[in-house]
Structure formats: structure tokens, C-alpha cells
Amino acid sequence: MRVLVVEDQADLVEILLEGLRAAGMAVDSALGGVQAQELLAVNDYDVVVLDRDLPDVHGDEVCRELIEGGALTRVLMLTAAGAVDDRVEGLSLGADDYLAKPFDFAELVARIRALGRRARPPIPPVLVDGDLVMDTARRVATRGGRPLRLTAKEFGVLEVLLGADGAVVTSEQLLERVWDEHTDPFTNTVRVTMMRLRRKLGEPGVVATLPSAGYRIVR
């Protein structure tokens, strides 16, 4: 899942980045509305965690532009104001969810994952293909009942492939969905991750490579 955190408190940003990446998400950050607008113009995000009270371009305006642009990105607003009127106003702008500061980190992760499942064509929280089962909420994957010890990136790649329901997924799409903006687009990280994932999935092979096209789950 690709997430953008928009928050002007640098110390809070670092905490959120560390925690969300540990939870298996690919996360970028913006320290203000202007930087958020720039990133949203060039990247597709599943979820934007958006502080409402930004010092340059207000979070309301960032949200409004995102919604009016027809993006499939879901918006989770953060604010220090927790009154009902503030929540109603934020949701009326098009935000999908609202969380008042201070918040429990586990709740933030749960809300982001719930929104992420709705960001693109909806996919079930449990993905199944033959004897391969992935519970995206519990972050557990098994094959033939055998637990798969996957890294965060391996889990993310497999989640995207299973969610594509047999369609081809390019390396560029995997980089966009599973890695963050700091990843070199010319790196072989997708190929290396795929090799390790295939090794852990075992035989018979689950992931097919289509030369010059990408990867797909074998049906």
C-alpha cells in the first residue's frame, strides 16, 4: 500500500514514517500543502494522511483539489480539533475518515488499512488463490497451510499480484505501489524481491513472468 503523510511537525512525521513502514506500508511525506500538491501531481497514492491545519496551503484545499481531480486516493484527515462540527466539516470536504490528535497509533494503522482496501477497485481482506491464502488485515500468508515468512516488500508484492486477480502487473506498477519515492526506478529491486518471493512460495510456481510485460498470478 502506498501512503502519503502530510504533516508540518517534523518530529511527528518521523515517528509516523518509521511506524507505518514497520507496518509494511510504502510511505512518502510532505511537510506542507505545497509539497503535498507536488507529490500528488506525480504519484498515485492509496491513502493520504492529511493534517488539516497546514501553514502554507490549508489541508482543506489539498483535500478539495484531490477530490475534484477525480483521484481514487482515500483521505484520512488529522487535526487537533476533535469537536463534532470540525469532523463534519472535514468529511463534507470529501475526506473519507477523520482522526483527532492525539491518536492511538494502532487505530491509525487500522484506519489506513481499511481505507486502502477501498482506494482502488475493492478487494476482499482475505485473498485466496488455490492453496495460497493471504489475510491482509492480519498480515499473514500461508500456502497449503504452511506459514510464509515474508518480508514487508515480499508481502506487498504478493498482495498487489493477488489483488490484480490474474491481470498482468508491470515492474513499474509494483515500484509505484510497494516502494516509496526514494527508490531508484532503474533498480533491480523488483526482480530480486520476486526471486526471493518465488523461493518462499515453493513449487509448483505461483507467479509467472511475461517477458517485456510484467508478472501475474498463475491461474
From TrEMBL:
Residues 124-219 bind DNA. Residues 124-219 form the OmpR/PhoB-type domain. InterPro entries: CheY-like_superfamily, OmpR/PhoB-type_DNA-bd, Sig_transdc_resp-reg_receiver, WalR-like, WH-like_DNA-bd_sf. GO terms for biological process: regulation of DNA-templated transcription. SUPFAM superfamilies: CheY-like. GO terms for cellular component: cytosol; protein-DNA complex. It comes from the Bacteria. Gene3D superfamilies: 3.40.50.2300, 6.10.250.690, Winged helix-like DNA-binding domain superfamily/Winged helix DNA-binding domain. Residues 2-116 form the Response regulatory domain. PROSITE patterns: OMPR_PHOB (PS51755), RESPONSE_REGULATORY (PS50110). GO terms for molecular function: phosphorelay response regulator activity; transcription cis-regulatory region binding. The modification 4-aspartylphosphate is found at D51. Keywords: DNA-binding, Phosphoprotein. This is Response regulator transcription factor. It comes from Actinomadura rudentiformis.
